[in-house]
Amino acid sequence: MQIKRLRLSGFKSFVDAADLRIEPGLTGVVGPNGCGKSNLLEALRWTMGENSPKSMRGAGMDDVIFAGTDARPARDFAEVSILAEIDGGETEVVRRIERGAGSAYRIDGRDVRAKDVALLFADAATGAHSPALVSQGRIGAVIAAKPAERRAMLEEAAGIAGLHVRRKDAEQK
Ligand code: ATP
Ligand code: MG
Fold first, then answer.
1. CB–CB of 93/81 below 8 Å?
2. Per-residue pLDDT reduced to its tens digit, 38-67
3. Buried/exposed code over 78-108 (b: 16+ C-beta within 10 A; e: otherwise)
4. Which positions does UniProt annotate for ATP binding (predicted)?
5. Cα 27 to ligand 2 centroid, rounded to whole Å
């Protein structure tokens, strides 16, 4: 899987629509302190289904919505789109959150469950907790991880994390 394009609107400091092309290979994000580098990585993880507001550095999930500044009013929604090449085809995943109303997901324009998005990325050996997304402090977290946590990271990297979800589903049926 390769992420080819990231579009954001109203997500954290990205109040205006931003459209970023991501080229093959390693991508680094550089810029002055506070310009939104970490916010970009968070946008990727959020769209892949991250559901912990704390890991988005917020108190609640609505904190990912542009909160306003002296010069600009707050927004009432945030939307992020990831265009990815998976198995030779292009897939667009969109997550949208409305203030006070929670999140909704779309894959190629179809409304889907959060779980469908998680499975899509898990099968493509990536996802919100993928070691392919190296956020600030992450190297230290890998070193300090407990064995079970490190195993989960390895399973995600190997693309087998989705199998656990499906086994759990099957056991409940
Ligand atoms: P550093 O180099 O210090 O790690 P960075 O480039 O990673 O900085 P970020 O942490 O991505 O910067 O961005 C921080 C900025 O995003 C801050 O100015 C903060 O006010 C802004 N920000 C975060 N959430 C929101 C929000 N909901 N609404 C508006 N601005 C926000
Ligand atoms: Mg940062």
1. yes
2. 999 999 999 999 999 999 999 999 999 999
3. bbbbbbbebeeeeeebbbbbeeeeebebbee
4. 32-39
5. 15
CATH number of the domain enclosing 73 = 3.40.50.300
Number of domain units in the chain: 1
Determine if ligand 1 sits within 6 Å of the CB of residue 12: yes
Question: What does the pLDDT average to over 89-109?
Answer: 97
Cα–ligand 1 centroid distance for 87 (angstroms):
34
CB 6 within 8 A of CB 40: yes
Taking only Cα atoms into account, the Rg of the chain, rounded to an integer number of angstroms, comes to 16
In the predicted model, is pLDDT for residue 107 greater than 80? yes
51 is in an annotated binding site: no
Range of the domain at 117: 2-172
